[in-house]
Fold:
Amino acid sequence: MRGNKKELADSKDKQLENYRAHDEGKKMTTNQGLRVSEDEFSLKAGERGPTLMEDFHFREKMTHFDHERIPERVVHARGYAAHGEFELYESMKKYTKAKFLQEPGSKTPVFVRFSTVVGSRGSGELARDVRGFATKFYTEEGNYDLVGNNIPVFFIQDAVKFPDLIHAVKPEPHNEIPQAATAHDTFWDFVANNQESAHMIMWAMSDRAIPRSFRMMEGFGVHTFRFINEDGEAFFVKFHWKPTLGVHSVVWDEAQKLNGKNPDFHRQDLYESIECGDYPEYELGVQIISEKDEFVFDFDILDPTKIWPEEDVPVKIIGKMTLNRNVDNVFAETEQVAFHPGNVVPGIDFTNDPLLQGRLFSYTDTQLIRLGGPNFHELPINRPVCPFHNNQRDGYGRQTINVGRVSYHKNSLANNTPSLSSVDEGGYTHYQEKIDGRKVVARSDSFKDHFSHAVLFWNSMSEPEKEHIIEAFSFELGMCKEKNVRQQVVDMFSNVDLELAQRVAKNVGVQQPVINRGPKVKKSSPALSQENTVKKPDTRKIAVLVGERFNKNVPVIMEALKNIGTHPVTVGEKQGFIKGENGDELEVAQTFLTGDSVLFDSIYVVGGEDTSHQFFESAAYFINEAFIHYKPIGASYQGRELIEYLNLPSNAGIVMGDAPSEFLEEFIKAISEHRFWNRKTY
Ligand code: HDE
Structure:
C-alpha cells in the first residue's frame, strides 16, 4: 500500500471495519445462518423429558461456549489495549531508512497493549510489578513491534534464564500462593542467587512499579537495537516513550487498597480517558550511539541490565503517539494481538544482546500454543495494512484462499512469483555485522558488573523515593518466611547502599550488614527521579464531598475545575440530587459506599448546611485516607470546619479558602504537585 498520509493513518481502522459484526437489530441465526426460533428451551422428549441429541442449536451453542477460553499469556496475562496513531516530528533519515520514520507529519496507525507481568488474567492491576508497554506500528512496509516495559532494564542478561525467573516469581507451585506478587520466598531466593537482577530490583522496589495510570508511565525498548540508513551505515539505538502527563505513582498502601476497591483501576482509567477525549500521549525518544563509540562507555552497551544515562546520551524526541480509540471487543483485539520483538522493518535490526536474541525465538513459539496454530497473523488485529504474499499454506483456521497451484519457490508456472524484492524495492536484509568467535557457553566479562547501575539508580532518588524503596524491600522481605532468604537479600543490597540494607535488616529481623563491598559510584542521573517529572493538573480526578444546602459557589468552582481539564466528581451520602442554599441542584455521582479516597487524586471538602453526623464521619474517613496518602486536600465552607475539627498533624498540601478565585489558584497548584511528601502524617 503506497497511499497518501491520511489513508495510511486510517488504514488499520478501515481494514478492521471489514471484520466488525453489528448484531444489534438483526435476526438470530445459527453459525450456519439458519434462523433460530427458540433460545430458551432445549428440544426434549416430552415437557419433563431428557434433552435430545438432535437439538443442533443447543449443541452448537454449548460447544462454542465450552471452547471459549484460550490459554492466557504465560507472562503479561493481565493487559489492556487501545488504538491510536504515531506522528513523526522529525525525519530520522540520517539514522534509519524505516519508512515510517522519514517524513515529518506522517502518521502511522498503532495498537498498544499495557500489562502487568506476573498475575493471571483476572488479577488486580495495582500489583507491585513491571508494566508491559507493547506497541504495534502498522507501517506501509509491514508491522513493526516495539515490545517494551515501563522499566528500562531487565532482571537477567541471558534469555536461557527466563523460565527460571518466571518460575520463581509466579505463585509457588505447591500451593499456588501468592497471586500477582513478588513478595514471597522463591522470588527473593532467585534474586539473591542471581545477582544480575540487582539493578532491576531497585526499579521494581521503587514507585515505578506502582504507576498511577498507564497514561503516566514511561515505556522503554530495554534492549539496544540497530538503526540502518540508506547508505548501510548502522547506529545503536534505544527507544523511550515519554508520557506528556509525566511519570506518577500511587503509594503502596493505596495500591493494596485499590486492588480491593477497584481491581480494574488501570484499565478503567485508560478506557474512560479515551472515551471522554483525554487521549493519552507519549513522545517517542531515541538514544543513539554510533558504531565507533561502541566501547567508550564504562559498561557494555549491549547489557540489558544497564541504562544509557540520559545525561550522557541525550534522548532525542522524534514523534508522538496518541491513543484515541478503545477496542470494540477485548477478546478479538486485546487478547488475540500477537506481539513479537522480531517484527521489524527495513532500517531496524537487532544487536547481540543475549536477552533479545532469546526473545526472538520465544514470541512466535508462545503464540502457536496460545492462538492455536500458525495462522494467527491472519487475525484482524494482527494483519499488516500492506499486502502479504508467500508460499506458506494451510494449518488450523486458515482463512486466506490462496488461488492457483503454485505454492513453492522457485517456479516457472507462476513466473517465479511471489517474487523477491531487492533492497531498493524494500526487501529486508540483515545487517552484515562481522562476527569472529568460538562457540562457547559463556557470559562476557563486560556483563559481570551487577551493582554500578543499581547504585547509580539509588543515588538518583530523592529522599521520599529512597524511603519508599526501603519500605518496599521491608514489605517484600517481610512476606518471606525463610530467614535465610531475607538475610541473603539484605547482604546482597549492602553492595548498593549500607544504610538501605541496614534499615531493611532491622525491619525484617535479620543481621545488619556492616560493610559495603559494592562499587563506589558517586554519579547520579536526575532523569531517573520522578521528582523531576512533568507536573500538571490535567485529567486529575477530584472527589467533591458535598451535602445538602451546599454553598452557592460550589457549582461555580466545579465548573472552573472542569475548565482547566480536571474531573471533579460529586461524592455524597446518597445517590440522586441534592439542593444548594440557593436552590441549585447537583447530582451525587458516587456515594461514600461506592466511592473511596483511593480512587481519586485529590479531594475537595465543601459539605453543606444540612449535613448529618454520618456525613461528617464518612467525610472524615475520606480526608484521613487522602491525608496519609499525601494527596492534595481542598476545603471551603462547612468543609473547612471539618478539617479544623480533625486537627491533622500537618497542613502541607491542604488548601483552605472560600473565595473561589483565590482558592482555585492555590488548589490547582496543589493538584499539579500530585503528592506532598513533606507532610508529616503522624
Ligand atoms: Fe517478554 N514475553 N520475554 N519481555 N514480553 C511475552 O509473549 C520473553 C522481556 C514483554 O501485550 C510472551 O505473547 C522472554 C523483556 C511484553 O501481548 C513470551 C524474555 C521485555 C509482553 C515472552 C522476555 C518484555 C511480553 C508471553 C527474556 C521488555 C506482553 C506472551 C528473554 C523489553 C506483550 C507473549 C503483549 C510477553 C518471552 C523478556 C516485554 C513468553 C523469553 C526484556 C510487553 O513470549
User: Anything to note?
Assistant: Residues 354-370 form the longest helix (17 residues). Residues 73-76, 79, 113, 115, 132, 134, 147-149, 154, 159, 162, 222, 337, 339, 355, 358-359, 362-363, 366-367 surround HDE (CB under 6 Å).
